[in-house]
Amino acid sequence: MKISHADVFVTSPGRNFVTLKITTDDGVVGYGDATLNGRELAVASYLRDHVTSLLIGRDPHRIEDTWQYLYRGAYWRRGPVTMAAIAAVDVALWDIKAKVAGLPLYQLLGGASRTGALAYGHASGFDLEALFDSIREHLELGYRAIRIQTGVPGLDSVYGVAASTKIGERYDYEPAQRSAAPSEEQWDTRAYLRHVPTVFEAVRNEFGPELPLLHDGHHRMTPIQAAKLGKALEPYDLFWLEDCTPAENQEALRLVRQHTTTPLAIGEIFNTAFDYQTLITEQLIDYVRSAVTHTGGITAMKKLFDFAALYQIKSGIHGPTDISPVGQAAALHLDLAIHNFGIQEYMRHSPETLEVFKTSYSFTDGLLHPGETPGLGVEYDEQLAEKFPYDPAYLPVNRLLDGTVHDW
Ligand code: EZ4
Ligand code: CO
């Protein structure tokens, strides 16, 4: 069996997605997600201009060899564009292998270790009333774990708070705005640090001690600010505090860790296991947040999770709407198979997205399951996708009240 075609599709059914389709000479098709929010065309070009022609004629079963060929062969290693491109090839090849085997992909990864993957959804609201409504809506939808983001008094717009909290309208906070340039948000860390513990106190009083609650700090704190927040949130028993600092500096987490027992999750903007080396070997975090789509695919993520498992660190795969249903399905097959699964992020894709990408995963009693369709279980409707051309969209830029650019 040989690869005969490799095609890259960019479509925008509600938001932009990049999809790689690999076809074999006997007609087996595999899909990979190459979506990098706000930089989509860079990955499409990397694939079209530098990768697809190298795939033609290769044996699609040689997944590890193809991964190493693309990673080492480029000489220029790592980085979000490169690793998203490699991930797309890797996931498409796993899709093909599983289809040839006639098995859902998780069976090739060791089989099911659990009945389903606990998922968390995103509740948000500018004030407590809107936030409580959003939490209730998520509970009614069946969510059994919930991320909490709220407005901060004095700030007009804050990352993670949806314009509308009504599911079906725009309950998902979609940080990328369709326009030719990024929108700008404002930020005040001291106001945020004063406010957030009062929100968690109110949520615990209203919803009780059982419900797993998460919070995303989105890289906005210094290590000592993150330590302070972690300590302040301890009475509310968070499942995790995510991306508390910009963790390119892995050593920063040592300081946070020394001060708080709030569990820490990090890594949605990481793209290799090397970004976690200190964090894992020194046990400075509790959850690995990488996306399959941004961290080199199934092959790299399986190794990363096995490495983390040696240190009792669990998975918490990134699953926002800017991961396509192909990337989400890949995550679910891993979630079901690995031993050290923790939780899976699950924002719902829009109805238009789910018409272009036909999925076979399910959500029952708070648990996601990838389904039993051979391969990943996702079909891509090329004709329908053409009706949704690429539309530029950018993630926001954040500024402190004095105008200084800040992490958002
Ligand atoms: O901001 O995926 O935990 N989830 C997140 C996401 C990210 C977006 C960026 O593209 O932080 O909402
Ligand atoms: Co996040």
Draw up the topology in text.
Blueprint: E1 3-11, E2 17-24, E3 29-33, H1 40-50, H2 52-55, H3 63-73, H4 80-101, H5 105-108, E4 117-125, H6 128-141, E5 146-150, E6 177-178, E7 184-187, H7 189-207, E8 213-216, H8 223-233, E9 240-242, H9 252-259, E10 264-266, H10 277-281, E11 287-288, H11 297-309, E12 314-317, H12 325-337, E13 343-345, H13 351-356, E14 357-359, E15 362-364, E16 367-369, E17 378-380, H14 382-386, E18 393-394, E19 397-400, E20 405-406
Question: Any descriptors?
Answer:
408 residues; alpha/beta; Enolase-like, domain 1; TIM Barrel; 3-stranded antiparallel β-sheet; 14 helices; globular; binds (2S,3R,4R)-2,3,4,5-tetrahydroxy-N-oxo-pentanamide
How does this model look, in words?
The protein contains 14 helices and 20 strands. The chain is α/β, with parallel strands linked by helices and 408 residues long. It has two domains: 3-103, Enolase-like, N-terminal domain (Enolase-like, domain 1, 2-Layer Sandwich); 108-374, Enolase-like C-terminal domain (TIM Barrel, Alpha-Beta Barrel), CATH 3.20.20. The strands form five sheets. An eight-stranded parallel beta barrel has the order 4-5-8-9-10-11-12-13, surrounded by four helices. The longest helix is centred in the N-terminal third of the chain and has 22 residues, at 80-101. The chain is globular and about 60 Å long. The termini are far apart. The structure holds (2S,3R,4R)-2,3,4,5-tetrahydroxy-N-oxo-pentanamide (EZ4) and cobalt (II) ion. Cobalt (II) ion (CO) binds next to loops. (2S,3R,4R)-2,3,4,5-tetrahydroxy-N-oxo-pentanamide binds at residues 37, 175, 216, 218, 268, 320, 322, 345, 395.
